[in-house]
Amino acid sequence: MKRAFSLIVVPVAALTLAACGGSDNKDTGHSMSGHSMGPSMSMSSAPETAGHNAQDVMFAQMMIPHHQQAITMAEQAATKASSPEVKKLAARIENAQQPEIDKMTGWLKDWGAAMPSPGGMHMGDGMMSEQDMKKLGTLSGKAFDKAFLQMMIKHHQGAITMAKTEQAQGSNADAKALASSIISSQSAEITTMQNLLKNM
Question: What are phi and psi of 196, to 5 degrees?
């Protein structure tokens, strides 16, 4: 019985030692590669995990339909505005905001976050109501110019408010950089639009 026990113990002990030895070798291999790969691995996964927070997601989800509405307004100016300055400003708004929509859409996909529904525009933050948009669509000439500028000033002010919230509470560097760009570009456009209104 004693002999049988020793026959069992010795192979088990040998296996245990071999396993330990094997895992030690693997560990040293892993730990060496782990040390070299660890930081780069965590850095590469940062944008998708620790690289954004709920505010970043909300910023993109709210700013996309906000920009889409501004583009809809700007597209109308191409045919309805009488002022060349208003037409030029509208084209600039359209050209600036579509690439920003594309960028934010890409972030939401990368983050695994929901896309804003096309018809589910959030009211507030300078968003125009459906009634406002219909009214703008009925105007042309100088009446359109004036309404467009008044509405777009309010619209831009809403975007700036959202962008300031993102700067204060967001964590994603790219989203905060876009927020900063929106604040500077749209503040400049507000000044331009206020000056155009004064001269009408």
Answer: -65, -40
